[in-house]
Write a structure and sequence with these properties.
The chain is of the alpha+beta class. It is built from 15 helices and 35 strands. The strands form six sheets. Strands 18, 19, 20, 21, 22, 28, 30, 32, 33, 34 and 35 form an eleven-stranded mixed beta sheet that branches. Strands 12-11-17-8-9-16-13-14 form an eight-stranded antiparallel beta sheet, with no helix packed on it. A hairpin with a 5-residue loop joins strand 11 and strand 12. About 1% of the residues have low confidence.
Length: 613
C-alpha cells in the first residue's frame, strides 16, 4: 500500500478527438508495465465494441501506473458532450485534471464544458497541448485561447497559474517547450508529481467511499469503484451502505481490488486517497456511500445536469414484429431501461399511460443512439419516435435548450452553410478565417435547430466540414414550428418483396432507401420524395410476362444507388408522424399509422382541430 503522500489522482479531460485515450496509451507503455516486444493494441482503454468502431470514448475508465515511488491513478473520460454525465461524476474521484487541447483545433465546445466542471470541483489543472507534431500546429495561439477560456470561466489566480506541457500522444513524447522535441513522457510524469496534490483524508478515521463507477463480473456480481475519502478498507470488513434516498443497509466486503495498468489485482488493504474496486455488495449503485458502521456519514452524490432531449421507446408493433429479435415484450423493454438507469446517471425513464411506451430522456442524440445500438445488439426489438427537446417553464416563461455550435467549413461553402442555419434561428457569434482555405464559424443555436441538420451540413460542405456542438444554456423558446425536414417520403402501398422493376418505376420520384429483394410492408417508408408531400408507391410491382422476347430492351437499365440509412441518420430523418423500427438485423422507417385511408382521416381531423372547427 502506497502512503497517501505518494498517491496522485488525475482525470484526463478534453474535447472529442483531441487525443486523450492515445495519450493514456503512451503513459501506460512508458511506465514499464509491459515487457519489451509485447504486442499492444491502440486505444487500450476503449474496450467497448462501439468505442472501437466509432473511435470515441463512451464510458469513463480508470487505470494506474507507478512512476518512481509514486502511484498515479488515471481516469480517462469521454470527450463527447452527450456523455457529460460520465465526466461530472468522475471528477469527484480526483484531485487534478490534465486538460488536453489539440495544438491545431484549439478550444472547442466540450473543452469549455469539461474545464468549467473541473474548476467548479477546485481541481488543479495541467494544460497539455497535444498533437504538437501536426503540420499546422499553432501552440502559442492555442495557449492564449486556453488562458482566455480560464478567465471567461472565472478561474482564480492559483488556477490561472497552470503549468503547460507540449506533447504528441501519437509519437510518444512530451516537452516543456513547444519548439523542443522530447524523447519520452517524463516531463508529463514529472509535472503530475510536482503540481497535483496528494489526496486529502485521514487513514486512521472510520472508512468512507463514494461509488463513482460500476462494473460487473459473472462470478463476483456488481463491483463498485470509487475513491476512499477517509479511513481504510479490507476484505471481510463489515460496512454500512448509505443509499441516495437516505436509507441504509449492512453489507460485507468480500474482495478488494487495486489497479495496475489494464489489470485488477487483489489487495489486502487500501487507505485514504486510493481508488479501489469493492466486490461482494449486492445491488450497490452509483452515488451510494460505503461507510464504517460506527460512523455512517453519507457523502453528497454528484450533481448531474438535467437531460435536454427525449424520445419515446415503444414495443415493436409493425407487421414484421418478432421476426428478428429475441426480446420483444414491454416487460423486457422496461427491465432493460431500468437496468440502464443503474449505471447511466444522466438518463431518465418515465412510464406513460400506455404499458407499451416509455419516455426516455438523455443529453443528446448520440447519448440515446448509443443506448438503442446497445439494445439492438443485445437482441431487443423496439420502435422509437422523433427526438424532441425538453422545454422547461420558469416564472411563466417557456425555455428551451441552446447549444454552442462550432463548425470548420471550406471557404466556398460558407455562404450555403450560413443560409441553411438562418431559418433554424442560429445566431452567429464569431467568424475566424483559418489556414488552408477553411473558415471557423461559431453559433448559438436552439437544440431543436440541430436535429437532423448534420446530413444537410455534410452535403453542403461535400463531406469536408467538421461540426461540434455542446449544451450552452436554457433560453426563451424560439417562436415557430420545429425545423424538421422539408421533403416528403415514398411510402410502400402494400406488403411484399421489393422488385427491380417496381423500384425502377418509382426512382425518378426521389431517392430510395432500400435495395431490390428487401421485404416491405404497407406504411413502410422506402425513400425520400423530390417534393414536400408524401406519396404512396408500389415497389413490389412485377413485370407482366409475355411471349414476345426482346434481346436488347433492358440491357442498359440500372438502378441508382440507394441511400442506406445508419441508425443515427434514421433518427435524424424522422418526422413527428413516423417511427424508427430497430431490430438486431434491420433499421426501418415507418408511418405511425400504416394504412393510407386511416392516415388521411387522421390528418383531416388534425387540420380541423387546428382550425378550431
Amino acid at each position: 500500500m502506497h502512503p497517501r503522500e505518494h498517491i496522485r489522482n488525475i482525470a484526463i479531460i478534453a474535447h472529442v478527438d483531441h487525443g486523450k485515450t492515445t495519450l493514456v496509451d503512451r503513459l501506460l507503455q512508458q511506465s514499464g508495465l509491459f515487457r519489451e516486444g509485447e504486442t499492444l493494441q491502440e486505444r487500450m482503454l476503449d474496450s467497448n465494441d462501439l468505442e472501437r468502431e466509432r473511435g470515441i470514448t463512451i464510458l469513463a475508465k480508470n487505470t494506474a501506473v507507478t512512476y518512481g515511488d509514486y502511484r498515479i491513478n488515471i481516469v480517462d473520460t469521454p470527450g463527447h458532450a452527450d456523455f457529460g454525465g460520465e465526466v461530472e461524476r468522475i471528477l469527484r474521484m480526483v484531485d487534478g485534471a490534465l486538460l488536453v487541447v489539440d495544438a491545431f483545433e484549439g478550444c472547442m465546445p466540450q473543452t469549455k464544458f469539461v474545464l468549467r466542471k473541473a474548476l467548479e470541483h477546485r481541481l488543479v489543472p495541467i494544460v497539455v497541448v497535444n498533437k504538437i507534431d501536426r503540420p499546422n500546429a499553432r501552440p502559442a495561439e492555442v495557449v492564449d485561447e486556453v488562458l482566455e477560456l480560464f478567465i471567461e470561466l472565472g478561474a482564480d489566480d492559483s488556477q490561472l497559474d497552470f503549468p503547460i506541457v507540449y506533447a504528441s500522444g501519437l509519437e510518444g513524447f512530451a516537452s516543456l517547450e513547444p519548439d523542443v522535441r522530447g524523447n519520452d513522457m517524463k516531463p508529463l510524469f514529472d509535472a503530475i508529481v510536482r503540481h497535483i496534490p496528494a489526496p486529502p483524508g485521514d487513514p486512521e478515521e472510520p472508512a468512507q467511499l463514494l461509488v463513482s463507477l460500476l462494473d460487473y463480473n459473472d462470478y463476483l456480481g456488481r463491483i463498485a469503484i470509487g475513491r476512499i475519502h477517509r479511513g481504510s478498507l479490507k476484505p471481510g470488513q463489515a460496512v454500512t451502505v448509505l443509499a441516495r434516498d437516505g436509507g441504509s443497509r449492512q453489507a460485507r466486503i468480500e474482495k478488494l481490488f487495486g489497479f495496475k495498468g489494464l489489470s485488477r489485482i487483489e489487495i489486502g488493504e487500501a487507505g485514504a486517497g486510493d481508488i479501489v474496486a469493492v466486490a461482494g455488495i449486492r445491488d450497490i449503485n452509483i452515488g451510494e456511500t460505503i461507510a464504517d458502521p460506527a460512523r455512517p456519514d453519507p457523502l453528497p452524490a454528484p450533481k448531474i445536469e438535467e437531460p435536454t432531449l427525449k424520445m419515446t421507446f415503444l414495443v415493436n408493433n409493425s407487421p414484421f414484429a418478432g421476426r428478428e429479435g429475441k426480446y420483444v415484450t414491454s416487460r423486457r423493454l422496461r427491465e432493460r431501461l431500468m437496468k440502464e438507469l443503474e449505471t447511466d446517471v444522466a438518463l431518465r425513464v418515465e412510464e406513460t399511460d400506455s404499458l407499451d411506451a416509455f419516455i426516455v430522456s438523455g443529453r443528446g442524440e448520440l447519448h440515446l443512439g448509443i443506448l438503442i445500438e446497445h439494445m439492438r445488439r443485445e437482441g431487443y426489438e423496439l420502435q422509437v419516435s422523433k427526438p424532441e427537446v425538453i422545454v422547461r417553464e420558469e416564472n411563466g416563461v417557456r425555455l428551451e435548450p441552446y447549444e454552442r455550435l462550432v463548425i470548420d467549413v471550406p471557404d466556398e461553402s460558407v455562404g450555403a452553410v450560413m443560409e441553411s442555419l438562418g431559418p433554424r434561428k442560429a445566431e452567429l457569434v464569431a467568424m475566424t478565417q483559418g489556414e488552408g482555405g477553411h473558415t471557423r464559424l461559431e453559433y448559438i443555436v436552439p437544440s431543436r435547430g440541430l436535429i437532423g441538420w448534420r446530413t444537410t451540413f455534410l452535403t453542403l460542405t461535400r463531406g469536408y466540414g467538421i461540426m461540434n456542438h455542446a449544451f450552452e444554456r436554457y433560453g426563451p423558446l424560439t417562436p415557430g414550428e420545429g425545423f424538421g425536414r422539408r421533403q416528403g417520403v415514398l411510402i410502400a402501398s402494400e406488403s411484399g418483396t421489393a422488385t427491380f422493376y417496381g423500384m425502377l418505376s418509382v426512382e425518378d420520384r426521389g431517392v430510395l432507401f432500400i435495395e431490390p429483394g428487401t421485404e416491405v410492408y404497407e406504411g413502410m417508408i422506402v425513400g425520400e420524395h423530390n417534393r414536400e408531400t408524401d406519396i404512396v408507391v408500389n415497389v413490389c410491382k412485377t413485370k407482366q410476362l409475355t411471349n414476345i422476347r426482346s434481346s436488347t430492351k433492358e440491357e442498359t437499365v440500372k438502378l441508382k444507388t440507394p441511400r442506406l440509412l445508419s441508425l443515427e441518420a434514421a433518427l435524424e430523418y424522422l418526422n413527428d408522424d413516423e417511427y424508427c423500427e430497430v431490430t438486431p438485423k434491420s433499421i426501418r422507417l415507418r408511418k405511425k399509422i400504416l394504412n393510407k385511408s386511416e392516415r388521411e382521416r387522421a390528418e383531416k381531423h388534425r387540420k380541423s382541430a387546428q382550425a378550431g372547427v
